Sequence to fold (509 residues):
Amino acid sequence: MKISILRKLATVLCFFSIAITLRAQDIASFEKRITVKKLANGLTVVIMERPEAPVFSFYTHVDAGSAQEVPGITGLAHMFEHMAFKGTHEIGTTNWPAEKLALEKVETAYAAYLKENLKEVGRDEKKVEALEKAWQDAVAAADEFVVPNQFGEIVESQGGVGLNASTDRDDTTYYYSFPQNRLELWAYLESERFLEPVMRQFYKERDVVYEERRMSVDSSPQGRLLEQFLGAAYIAHPYGRPVVGWPSDLRAFSATDALNFFHKYYVPANMVVAVVGDVKAAEAMPIIERYFGRIPARPAPEPLRIKEPPQQALRQITIHDPSQPLYVEGYHRPDFRDPDDSVYDVISDLLSKGRTSRLYRALVRDKRIAIAAQGGTFPGSKYPSLFFFFAAPAQGHTAAEMAGPIHEEIEKLKTQDVTDEELKSIKTRAKADLIRGLGNDQGLAQQLGEFQALYGDWRELFRQIDEIERVTKADIRRVANKTFREENRTVATIETDGPKATPAKGEQQ
Fold:
């Protein structure tokens, strides 16, 4: 009994704390500590003074991901996640002038090899073999100048932690944290990566990415399912292509292709740098401007032109594999700028947030036909995306069995109001999630950088809560009826085929 009372008291105190913290961390209080400046070259810098510990974190957001790729170079955006740690023309090399010449020879040799190898008529196999050897010899010669891992070793030796990067369909990001007295070192290191990129050991890293694809997609039933699902859901938009790239592209694109992509999309006007921690904007901004201002101004890339046409009929994919059966279905929904974006957030929370969510209760707890069930937005947000439903059947149940219960929950959204208690809980959780996201420098730098890049104003981070607060029961019914239509549905399943029965003696096989 005492434990139960203490837990209830802790819950009350938790929500009371959230309310106090949210009031203390509203837009006005953040505005006093945040400085935003667009440099002369077009790069946007966001600095938040947060002197809680003598450290700072940064988040560099490049508004280019796999959605900016075209057929033939899929997977190239992801390559920069690998190349960013290879160093610069000063770091990671024993002799940059000599290495630069060696890398140019690599590209010349690779172009000759690729031209012959891609011939569909008249390819000379012996010539291909000789050209491939010449290319590999050039790669080996360039590798002689490489100092492995020097960039990362410098960061770590100076107290840096969390050195990493990520690539998605919408963007590519870079981040780590440093002691407060290493701000100028960080500004030098980070700006150098984008000032004069070096495609060092490019083809070695291309092989690494190819192996990533083999492990995460080709050898993974779940990976193949998602790839086929998105390929069926999108017939025009690049959201239908894998971030890791198609196998043929990963065997063909070059360091020259990568540099062309870089010069088009890694331009200051297409980047946001957010810094959060024990820094003073008046002191930090001149340092950041001195180093990042060296990056040449170039025109911002034009917006993506292609748009996904409306889906007119149900699409279905079935993979037969002796693995865990899975069920996925998705419905096209608008992008993050749509007035109903917050309604989709509410529906996602209602269906998927924790053990009290509707999908978990219906499929996992009550019917006991699934071991997991959820729904939400996938695969991106910058462009029109999908609202998906996912379920992993329990032992003895099939993927096909998941459809009925999921559609029952969808029908409830269309025809029945959510309860007052559900709606209140969702809105409270949204506030709690915001607070958790503001709990550390790195998380805050990421959110400020993302919202500044997406909306052109970091304040939208807080305005989202206001938008969710305004969502009504009628909004949920309206959006559910607008979105969850059969002709707008794509379904993908993994069905586990059982072992075939052994024919009796004398029976034909």
